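User: Can you predict the 3D structure for this chain?
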Amino acid sequence: QVQLAESGGGLVQAGGSLRLACAAIGRIFNNYNMGWFRQAPGKEREFAAAISRSGGTTFYADSMKGRFTISRDGAKNTVYLQMNSLKPEDTAVYYCAADLFSPLKEVPRSSREYDYWGQGTQVTVSS
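Assistant: Here is the predicted structure, written as structure tokens:
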């Protein structure tokens, strides 16, 4: 069992930055890939970013490349999402997720592959 708790959301003006954090409690942190997803009102949950168990491999949705950076700190059992140059269309609830069971060297980008989820944190970007 893994418990995930997001923090760092809030209200920011367009062009601003936020850093989300997701603290993991439970199994050994380095045993799982970590991902960030988001869900805007009336839309399906979408992939934002993912990072491998080692932290050596990262993936981003096309709309977030160059603006968002995912990272992890094994000593703090925490994964981060640094979001820069925020746009109103980035407004959503952001969720972190942990993938424990994918084969080694695979980092999923589908929400179906993730096993544990946080409660989400609201990010609102005003124009």
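The two ends are 40 Å apart (CA to CA). The CA atoms of residues 23 and 78 lie 4 Å apart.
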